[in-house]
Amino acid sequence: MSIGKNIQFYRIKIGYTQKELSEKLGIATGTIQQYELDKREPKFEMIQRIAEKLETSPYNLYGIDEDITDFNFSKACDWLDEAGYTVEPQDEHDSESGVYQICSFDEGTICRLDAQDIIALVEDCRKQAEADTDEQTVKYIKLAIKNQK
């Protein structure tokens, strides 16, 4: 389903009208209508706000299975660890922001990426090294992280 259809689904599931949701978000009812009709796509910050009001996650509004994403993120972090990097929430007091710091012992924070970008980076490196060894995957990851600076 599209983002708009997912917004509509979760809005109806929680029992809000378009007007009620728009009032909770401080936006026009017409904006909600445009989102739900897929005539306008909300920015990520708005997706986060909508998800909060609808008591769901941004992943669900995007139509992404959270369990699969969490599993892939965990595997991506394992690969980054193998390459000598740690993955930490950007703000140590707020692990819900979805932005993570990629750090190394020598260089400290190298870059900041969200979970989906971390998964994509590692998956791209694994594809490049598919016929090669795990060592080659680690080399591709190190190169990709350096290019994120």
UniProtKB/TrEMBL annotation:
<dbReference type="Pfam" id="PF01381">
    <property type="entry name" value="HTH_3"/>
</dbReference>
<dbReference type="GO" id="GO:0003677">
    <property type="term" value="F:DNA binding"/>
</dbReference>
<keyword id="KW-0238">DNA-binding</keyword>
<dbReference type="InterPro" id="IPR010982">
    <property type="entry name" value="Lambda_DNA-bd_dom_sf"/>
</dbReference>
<protein>
    <submittedName>
        <fullName>Helix-turn-helix protein</fullName>
    </submittedName>
</protein>
<dbReference type="InterPro" id="IPR001387">
    <property type="entry name" value="Cro/C1-type_HTH"/>
</dbReference>
<feature type="domain" description="HTH cro/C1-type">
    <location>
        <begin position="7"/>
        <end position="61"/>
    </location>
</feature>
